[in-house]
Amino acid sequence: MKKNKLLNLVKKLREETGAGVIACKKTLEETRGNYQKALILVKKKGLVKAEEKTSRATKEGYVATYTHATGRIGVVVELLCETDFVARNLDFQKFGKELCLQVAALKAKTAAGLLKQEYIREPEKKISQLVKEMIAKFGENIKIGKIARVEI
Predict the structure, then answer these.
(1) Strand segments (E) across the chain
(2) Global pTM?
């Protein structure tokens, strides 16, 4: 495979999965440049690593908020992680806001209930799957803490 093509595929795979450059390159080499196979393999490896991280302590995090345009619905979600580095990451914070939208729309009352819901933007995925993907992306344990929804 040509070097430029490999670099472009590595970049694309990294952007889509959040995996490291070396992991992306090795996986693409393993699959002989087959992007789809590499994508599946990287996600599978990432999720296996994500499972290993779930026992680690989450002492940092971000409190995401959402208020509906009408001002009649408000949501707060506590999204926990291991380090303030991840807590300050814009993708992590965006994920928190997505969770707020989910709670506003589907009225989850607990974190456990939220994890079981289908994601409103991609119904083929559960929220628990999204959390695992974030763990794989950031390399840290991530948990949903307290959630609150207020409606007038």
Answers:
(1) 60-67, 73-81, 143-151
(2) 0.70
